[in-house]
Amino acid sequence: MKQGKQSILFEKTPYIRSCASIVGKKEGEGPLAQFFDKIIDDPTFGEETWELAESRFQLEALSLALKKGKIKKEDLRYLFAGDLQGQITGTTFAMKDIGIPIFGLYGACSTMGESLSLAAMTVAAGYADEVGALTSSHLGSAEKNFRFPLEYGNQRPLSSTWTVTGSGAFIVSSSQGSVKIKGITTGVIKDYGVKDSMNMGAAMAPAAADVIYQNLQDMDWQPEEYDQIVTGDLGSVGREILIKLLKDNSYDISKIHMDCGMRIFDDETQDTHAGGSGCACSAVTLAGYCMDKLMKKEWHRILFVPTGALLSTMSFNEGQSVPGIAHAVILERQ
Amino acid sequence: MKQGKQSILFEKTPYIRSCASIVGKKEGEGPLAQFFDKIIDDPTFGEETWELAESRFQLEALSLALKKGKIKKEDLRYLFAGDLQGQITGTTFAMKDIGIPIFGLYGACSTMGESLSLAAMTVAAGYADEVGALTSSHLGSAEKNFRFPLEYGNQRPLSSTWTVTGSGAFIVSSSQGSVKIKGITTGVIKDYGVKDSMNMGAAMAPAAADVIYQNLQDMDWQPEEYDQIVTGDLGSVGREILIKLLKDNSYDISKIHMDCGMRIFDDETQDTHAGGSGCACSAVTLAGYCMDKLMKKEWHRILFVPTGALLSTMSFNEGQSVPGIAHAVILERQ
Questions:
Q1: Does B220 or A272 have the greater pLDDT score?
Q2: In this predicted structure, what is the pLDDT of residue A115?
Q3: What is the DSSP letter of A75?
Q4: What is the DSSP code string of B281-315?
Q5: Helices (H), A135-199
């Protein structure tokens, strides 16, 4: 149960029954292509807008996770879901006809960690046997929401990231699965005063460092207890800050750290600049690549730490800083 | 524990330790003025923007709830909070320096029901002893986000609502308080195809009717088990639809129903048109008026059902419908 200042170690540990990753064409041409369940070449996924395309990704990812878990949607008691769009309309229009009780979340690109945390808390407490946790992002809807519509054809600075198009969905279960959610560490908002919206890694790294530090403290573990500590979309600058901040606090994670944003694209051939980002970046990398490593027992235990930059065009245009947040989830192969 | 299809009846029932309501000048001139803890005459609350003003309302409401509950912020293990602004920046900038683990939520104007539900689930499960649940809205930030900046001075149609400026905060506790959160019923998204963004009541009424119906079914209760069923911001048109939909399903709630949006302003003298709306509308009416009725034992048990309209300017401008959601919370005086 309660473990230290910010963590829970579950008594009745919930399982990941199944998961699914569906990505766009560019992600399907990247280094992790083989680990994704489905690659959709049409960026609008047959829909009329980028926003509805994102919703379609989310609904299809949930449907596939249900199919892989051999359960029906009616077996889900709750959904925990969110996305990057203003008022999380990506999630609303994905789930508007599904008829499952839903808790709408906003954690920016940390949403997969937030939704898995709440899903695990809900199942471990006995409130539900099967719960869906999911998130999505889409290059088209994110650029339109935060920067310029793709049709405008603006140039992207080299420090900018590329929003991942796709969705990752997990079924968290009280009884079935080979990977357990052993515990969680819930993050606090960290504001280091970063005001450069093209340098999100620097904005998010302190939040990631804080929640990883707190996890190790609460568990009384050294980093080596993890085969891998997996952050969301810090990129190379953010990674450097993360490693340094933790080293300053006597934890060296440099050899066991990976960042999903640095792995999902190959900048040399894909021209994505500073790496991948978006809620789906960590979600599909976890559902695809990381779960594969756990299932094959190449990894035994990982700490999944997706990171979110908490800004809107409004807060940015009004000159506010970009605070960060990160939520950590301990995943363990049985 | 699990009760029927969508409800939880808590075994170890959590309490409302304390709550606070802080509102703007107009709300402080309305019919419920005497029930609010604080009325702030300055619409910017000393800040530079509407958005930062909203954040100030939220932080002050939490501080006051902590003070009234005689606990320190460090005693809170989690915060469940959200607001109407895109990417919930109202919440981000309110809580960016508080240092408490936070789950960011988006449920539009149903957020107070969503945050109380998750706070109660968390405390009842033993994950925490004291948790904060809160939300806010601000006329200035909402008009700017969804319609026109106030400075533009556009005319408002008579069917439009007036976003409540303020914040309601609750401390949910494992041990202290005179009002218990006996149970919850979590809503599903309902889409009746309403496309008129000036008729939010009609968009939200089906979701409210559905969650109230499901609550009565799951509990196997008649409406009379409640002294009051309190919806968020349906307004008069939405109320009529709600009463009718439930009557069609053999439940008559007409004599025990109140809508916060219809009570918080006096349209005849305040020129607010179709009533109050916004996350704070139901939050401050619950924290002020309803909690007072419960504390004085004028009411013994109520069902709190804040309602949310799930749209963004993006979804609206792209011609999408406005789905609704509502989350129900059973509050009982000891």
A1: B220
A2: 98
A3: G
A4: HHHHHIIIIIHHHHHTTS-SEEEEE-EEE---HHH
A5: 139-146
Give the predicted TM-score (pTM) of the model.
Answer: 0.97
Task: Classify residue B72 by burial, with Cβ atoms within 10 Å: 0-12, 13-18, 19+.
Answer: exposed
Ordered alpha helix ranges (H), chain A: 50-68, 89-95, 111-124, 139-146, 200-219, 235-248, 260-263, 267-270, 279-285, 291-295, 313-317
Q: Which of B127, B143, B29, B136 is nearest to B89 (CA)?
A: B136
8 Å CB contact between A40 and A24? yes
CB neighbours (10 Å) of residue A332? 18
B85 touches chain A (CB under 8 A): yes
A304 forms beta bridges with A230, A329
Per-window interface: B 207-246 vs A, CB < 8 A? none
The tokens for A312 are 């809107």
Q: What tens digit of pLDDT does each residue of A173-207 get?
A: 999 999 999 999 999 999 999 888 778 888 999 99
* Chain A residues lying within 8 Å of B126, measured CB to CB: 1-2, 125
| Mean pLDDT, residues B15-39 taken together | 98
Per-residue pLDDT at A157: 74
Chain mean position to CA B14: 19
pLDDT of A146 above 90: no
- Could you give phi then psi for residue B182, rounded to 5 degrees? -75, -35
Rounded to whole angstroms, the Cα distance separating B21 from A291 reads 45
CB B332 within 8 A of CB B179: yes
Which residue in A85, A103, A325 is closest to B114 by CB distance?
Answer: A103
Query: In sequence order, which ranges of B168-303 are alpha helices (DSSP H)?
Result: 200-219, 235-248, 260-263, 267-270, 279-285, 291-295
> B163-182 burial, b for 16+ CB within 10 Å, e for fewer?
bbbbbbbbbbbbeebebbbb
- The pair of three-digit structure tokens given for residue B331, joined into one six-digit string: 């509050």
* Minimal C-alpha gap between A23 and chain B (Å): 23
How far B309 CA lies from chain A's nearest CA (Å)? 10
What is the reported pLDDT for A44? 96
Residues near B101 by beta carbon (within 8 Å), at least 6 away in sequence? A6, A186, A187, A188, B77, B78, B79
Q: B269 in helix, strand or coil?
A: helix
Interface A-B, measured as beta-carbon pairs within 8 A, has a size of 175
ipTM over cut 0.90: yes
The whole-angstrom distance between B55's CA and the closest CA on chain A is 12
What's the burial of A323, exposed, middle or buried (CB within 10 Å: 0-12/13-18/19+)? buried
- Residue A22 CB-density burial (10 A; 0-12 exposed, 13-18 middle, 19+ buried): buried
A95 touches chain B (CB under 8 A): yes
- In B, minimum Cα distance to A74 occurs at B5
Amino acid (1-letter code) at residue B313: T
Choose the closest CB to A106 out of B2, B106, B314: B106
Number of H helices, E strands in chain B: 11, 17
B149 touches chain A (CB under 8 A): no
CB A272 within 8 A of CB A236: no
pLDDT tens sequence across A62-113: 999 999 999 999 999 999 999 999 999 999 999 999 999 999 999 999 999 9
Q: Cβ neighbours of residue B126 under 8 Å, at least 6 residues apart?
A: A1, A2, A125, B12, B174
